[in-house]
Amino acid sequence: MEALPVAGDRRGILSAVPAALNGGDPLLHPPPAPDSLVLPSSPGALDPDAIFSLFDPSENGGDDGHGGGDAPLSPRGIDAPSRSTRSSASEYSRITVSDPQKEQETTSSLVPGSGFYVTYLISTRFVSGSGGGLAEIRVRRRFKDVVALADRLSETYRGYFVPQRPDKSVVEGQVMHRHEFVEQRRSAIEKYLNRLAAHPAIGKSDELRVFLRMPVKSPSPSTEVASRMSDGVEALSKQVSGETRGRNVAVATQGLVQPAKGRRDFMRMFRELTQSVTNDWGGVKPLVMEEDKEFLEKKGKLQDLEQQLTTASKQAEALVKAKQDIGDTMGELGLTFVKLAKFEMENATYHSQRPRAAEIKHFATAALRTSRFYRESNAQTVKHLDTLHEYLGLMLAVHSAFSDRSTALLTVQTLTSDLSSLRAREEKLEASSMRFGGDKSKIHRIEELKETIRNTEDAKICAIKDYECIKENNKNELERLDRERHEDFLVMLKGFVSNQVIYAEKIANVWANVAEETKGYRSQSKSS
Amino acid sequence: MISPERSPPRSSSQSPRSPPAAPFLSISVTDPVKLGNGVQAYISYRVITRTNLPEFQGPEKIVIRRYSDFVWLHDRLAEKHKGIFIPPLPEKSAVEKFRFSTEFIEMRRQALDMFINRIASHPELKQSEDLRTFLQEDEETMDRARSQETGIFKKPADLIQIFKDVQTKVSDVVLGKEKPVEETDPEYEKLKHYIFGLEDHLAETQKQAFRLVKRHRELGQSLSDFGKAVKLLGACEGDSLGKVFSELGAKSELLSIKLQKEAHNLLMNFEEPLKDYVRAVQSIKVTFADRANAFRQHCELAETTKLKEINLDKLNLMRSDKVREAEMEYRELKAESEQATRRFETIVRLMNQEIVRFQEQKTADMGLAFHQFAKGQAKLANDIADSWRSILPKIEACSASSQHG
């Protein structure tokens, strides 16, 4: 990679990266985290005041432009800094999905009401030094392309915790019109792509790169062909350059193994399919014997974690809602008192009314300020506690990585048992031909059988390599999951707790002032 | 009916012979107890009167009263002191289920206590004989008095008045005078407009206050649930991170309790005073009605008297033998009319005093309510800040160790 000047950086936060770093592998010399605003990359050194001083709007009443405390960045911009440090280890610093457009389907469809689809503008910003000199690349993609990408990744990255793609909802043409649906999908795609970019292996993948960079020359069918072709080419070139480390070798190998296995293969695949259906997350049938105790232990722990995450995620949502409600009601209370104060002032005939009206106004103002603080605090709490939802979502990726593993193991075991039954048949045939003399057809059959056995042995070797590779991926991913989760949770906790402290102090201040102002009323006894 | 002097002699004088200390009359409504069974069950309260006033039977008197006894007192005072804003009573309970809930009983007790003390500190009401009856008579006498009032044994004079009212209404309709006669005093109009508007505004604030109480409870609940979930998550994570989660969960649960407490404080010391304010305004509206009635009577009687006078003059001229009868009737009617006018004027005079008192009292009440609110909220917020702050060092320690580890 050549050293390049930082082109068109509008953020102004990315400091100019020294040339020496540009020449190196991003993994070895991570550039400064672009997403964090004022912070160093280590999660432990967060200064709550530094973060939140950015979101402290002026105290002069009225609606502040900061609204819910959103920074100029998009909602995910306030990612845990450690997460964005990781994401910047890939070449993409930020992927934005925007500008949904309706386009006409070129091939007519049988489904009435369709005939068009939505495309999204995908803008990818590059970390300085990568991207071939460009600061940003834009392509248009439709959801079908996203699905295709996801399918390719799940084939290629077996054993990895591959982030799950957004749901395909079965939609009528009518529903697709709806702004809400399109907006939800846009947001989901954006989150998905950024998660992909943040993954240490997938973020560097060709599949992702092609998706983000290759301009679409023609509508869907040819795009898929083109991408598959380029996949194949790239896979081959990868093999040549030896960059197969960490990837599933089976992909390249499958391309090379003879296609014509015919009926036997089909039968085997059918058997495996029925077998894998009966296996589920918790049930381990005797046929697929996972003997790795350590793995089983980890799996059990993750099950437990998933359960707790589900509950915690749900309660976090409920908590956010309760905070929102109390903030809203405090605001409404303030407003009714404002109206009361106004009413008293307008109708003041007696001495005591004017001070009372003023008192009421002070109270109302305090209530309104408190309401605003609740809202601001909550906007940040949402982002912090989002970590819980993120990791819950990740569990799906873990499921599928583990099922990749059991599928691979199943293949190995099926091939093993196939092999033993084939060999048994061979023995029988040989024995019978020795006894009854060989005739042409029997010899031919034995020859065929021998070939089948050789092929099956080859397949078994591949399958074992496959399985070992997936096991290795699982292991690495598990370590990564534990490590990153530990870090991310700490950041979440720190952010959440600091936020609560800061806003509680602000609110305490507001009411302490009111209490001070009104303390004169305290001395009046009930019989006055 | 001398109550035994159970309490130790007070330094402020008991005996009438000692130099007169500041007169005081202080009453407590305490100690609610459920009596009776089933549908007939009710709550009784202890009413303790402490005073040095000579009109009372002694320095301290304790009686047992129930809600309907307070209602009796309220109604008697309302009848006899038209023009005065009678302190409001808490509502009859609408929902059977909550009639005996601890919260409801406490709110009612507080409101009754305030009711009786306001009467005791009102310059005119405190001298009422009915008040003394209420505070001192034994329970049987009280029961009798109460049932007399609410039963069909109304005083004959009342019945006549009721008939008269009905008559007037009917004749009004017959004569096409359906619109009741009303005052046209602009100041009074302004006051009426103010009071009616005030009721609306206050009702709204009370509604929001109640909602805020609910929100505190809901937040408390969800913090508690969150705390539990986080604790479980911590148990799952284990090691130092797990400990931090546990700590977070524990603090959440603690704060949940504080929130419930603050909800209760808000209910008693903020929402109730607002409700009380609304009731007071409604009591003023009753006085408006009394004043309107008095005005109408005064007008009608004045008119009828005039007609009678004209008639009398006519009879005098004709030297009819009906003159003497007519003269007697005229004189009676004139006396009545003057009485009605006096009643009306008393009401007007009293109302003017009362409204000043009302405004001052309400400024004080609102000020206190705001103070209680602010104090409670400030304390809650400080507790929250302290609780969360105490976890920060643990989080720091955890991240520091994970960096090196």
SSE inventory with pairings:
The complex is a heterodimer of chains A (528) and B (405).
Chain A: H1 19-23, H2 48-53, H3 81-87, E1 92-104, E2 116-126, E3 136-142, H4 143-156, H5 173-177, H6 179-198, H7 206-213, H8 220-241, H9 249-256, H10 262-278, H11 293-346, H12 353-436, H13 440-517
Antiparallel strand pairs in A: 1-2, 2-3
Helix pairs in contact in A: 3-6, 10-12, 11-12, 12-13
Chain B: E1 25-35, E2 42-51, E3 60-66, H1 67-80, H2 102-121, H3 129-136, H4 139-150, H5 156-174, H6 186-237, H7 239-318, H8 323-389, H9 392-404
Antiparallel strand pairs in B: 1-2, 2-3
Q: Would you mind describing this structure in some detail?
A:
The complex is a heterodimer of chains A (528) and B (405). Chain A is mainly alpha-helical and 528 residues long. Helix content of chain A is 62%, strand content 6%. Chain A has 13 helices and three strands, in the order αααβββαααααααααα. Chain A has helices spanning 19-23, 48-53, 81-87, 143-156, 173-177, 179-198, 206-213, 220-241, 249-256, 262-278, 293-346, 353-436, 440-517; strands at 92-104, 116-126, 136-142. Chain A starts with 18 loop residues before the first helix and ends in an 11-residue tail after the last helix. With 405 residues, chain B is mostly helical. Chain B has helices spanning 67-80, 102-121, 129-136, 139-150, 156-174, 186-237, 239-318, 323-389, 392-404, and strands at 25-35, 42-51, 60-66. Chain B starts with 24 loop residues before the first strand and ends with a helix. Helix content of chain B is 70%, strand content 7%. Residues 1-14 of chain B have low confidence and may be disordered. In chain B, helix 6 runs antiparallel to helix 7 (239-318). The chains are: A mainly alpha (528), B mainly alpha (405). Chain B: It holds the Pfam family PX. Chain B: GO terms for molecular function: phosphatidylinositol binding. Chain B: Residues 23-142 form the PX domain.
Tell me the major beta sheet of chain B.
3 strands, antiparallel
Net shape of chain B: elongated
Task: Supply Rg of chain B.
Answer: 31 Å
Quaternary state of the chains: heterodimer
Q: Which band does the percent of strand residues of chain B land in? A: 5-15%
DSSP strand count of chain A: 3
Approximate helicity band of chain B: over 70%
Identify low-pLDDT runs of chain B.
Answer: 1-14
- What is the N-to-C order of secondary-structure elements of chain A (H for helix, E for strand)? HHHEEEHHHHHHHHHH
Query: Element order, helices and strands of chain B?
Result: EEEHHHHHHHHH
Class per helix and strand makeup of chain B:
mainly alpha
Low-pLDDT ranges of chain A: 1-85, 218-227, 232-264, 278-287
Q: What is the straight-line distance between the termini of chain B?
A: 84 Å
Helix content of chain A: 55-70%
The number of distinct β-strands of chain B equals 3
| SSE-based structural type of chain A | mainly alpha
Largest sheet of chain A: 3 strands, antiparallel
